[in-house]
Each structure stands twice: as C-alpha cells, then as structure tokens.
Hints:
- By secondary structure, the chain is α/β, with parallel strands linked by helices.
- It has helices at 6-26, 43-59, 74-86, 105-111, 123-130, 139-150, 170-178, 198-204, 254-257, 271-289; strands at residues 2-3, 33-39, 62-68, 92-95, 159-163, 187-191, 207-210, 227-231, 235-238, 246-249, 261-264.
- The chain folds into two domains: 29-113, Rossmann fold (3-Layer(aba) Sandwich), CATH 3.40.50.10860; 139-272, NAD(P)-binding Rossmann-like Domain (Rossmann fold), CATH 3.40.50.
- The strands form three sheets. A six-stranded parallel sheet has the order 1-11-8-7-5-6, sandwiched between helices. It has a three-stranded parallel sheet with strand order 3-2-4, sandwiched between helices.
- Helix 1 packs parallel to helix 10 (271-289), helix 6 (139-150) crosses helix 7 (170-178) and helix 6 (139-150) packs across helix 10 (271-289).
Amino acid sequence: MKILDGKVVSQAVKDDLKASTVAWKEKGGKTPHLAAILVGSDGASETYVASKIKNCEEVGFKSTLLRFEAGIEEQELIAAIEQLNNDADVDGILVQLPLPKHFNEEKVINLIDPEKDVDGFHPISLGRLVQGLPTFVSATPYGIMLLLKHYNIETAGKHAVVIGRSNIVGRPMSILLSQNTNPGNCTVTLCHSKTQNLKDLCLQADIIVAALGKVSFLTADMVKENAVVIDVGITRVADATKKSGFAIKGDVDFENVAPKCSYITPVPGGVGLMTIAALLTNTFAACTRK
C-alpha cells in the first residue's frame, strides 16, 4: 500500500506555479489576483479561506478577501460579485460555500463571470467540460487528476466507481475519468443514494472515489485487493483529545481499507491540499489567458 501524498504533490504544483509566475511577470505580465468572498463565520470556511490566502502568498499571487456578516441582504452580495467581475485586476473569483441558508447558492454562483470562475462551478464551465472543451475544471476533481498524474496511476481501461453525484465533485469527476486523456479512459460508474447494489459495484472497481460526506462510509468489505481509493470526505468530528476539539475524518474507513489498497489518499493530507493547488492553477490560467 502506498500513500497518495497531497502534501508532496501540492507543493510540487505550487513550486511550478511560483516559477511560472516569476517568468510571467519578467515578461511584463501582471500579478495573478484571486478574490474570495466569505459570508458569515463558519469555522471550516474560515480555515479554508485562510489557507487559500496563505497559499496565494506562497506562489506570489495577490489575494483579496471580502468579508460579510451572515445576515447581509442578497443584493449586497450581488453588488460585491458584480464589482469583482468588473475589476480588470481580479483574475479569479470564489465564493466560499456553504452560504447562509437564506441565499440561493446556484443563483450566486451563476453571477460570477465565467472567465473568472476559477472554482469551476459555473454552468458554462461545466458545460464546456462535458463537451471536452478548454475550461476551468472544478478544483477538487482537477486536484485528484493532478494527484493521479503525479503518481503515474494507470487509469486507461480501468473500472472507476464514483460515489456521490454533486456538481462540485461527483459529476465532473466521472466526466474527467471517462475522457480520452491521461489520466482518463476509465469505464465509470456514478453511484448515489439510490444505487441498489453499491457494494457489488465497489467490489468490481479498480478505482474508487468516495465523495458523499459520510464518515467512514467506505468499509473494507466494499473494496477489492489492490484497488486505488480516493477519499474526498472532510468532516469535523468532535474529539476531546485534540487541542482544536475536533478531528478531520474522511468518507473511507482508512485503518481497515488501506491494507487492501495499492494506493490510497489520507485525510487530512490528501485531496484537500490538492483542491487548493488546482484552484491556484486555474487562477494562473485565468490571468495568462487575458
């Protein structure tokens, strides 16, 4: 069993981005600029946004954080997005999810200029992905593809099972794995809450991507020997032994599944770090496309 180490791979991606940014600016290019919007004070969201800003600094990007109280009116958020859309210096825009419940997340995401949609959530971005056209790929699936590529994981002709059908992870992940690319060329089964024979399908899988947000959902009896397992889950679980008061758990029962795998991602230290690396890669692409 080998660990797919997101810390190592994300650092390699960031090192390349840092060098590319220096070269870009030496040729007269502008500093890539990522703008983030944070509504409310959700602990996990605070952590994610702080990490994104820190990583921007690490690779030489400019970053802007717009903070709003949880109770702001929708029109105020709309105005902020429109301002960023119209700001020529801003290359990428992300709205940290989840938003407070009185917001329509789909409506908010659709307001972002597709040319600045570095999270890859806009319907135009997803539509271009489906058609195999150049686009911003949703950062988590993109990060997983970068991870598979770094470790030279053989995917062509393999059976991949993706558990979870969200527009942020599951659906784009299934498309990327099925594309005529490397990594890619898998036969993909997309599973969800209504899938009847999930365990049987997982036992057929050479590659499993677990992205449903349920702690330790994927157990050892669902995984065949030498499978590649990608754990997308990031759930905070109360843990009095931790200084923070919580532990981060994934969708995979790592302790019991890992011995059966050829490769597996840890949580934390796996996919989460790759998501940020992919977001930065998209931001650099947005800047240099201009």
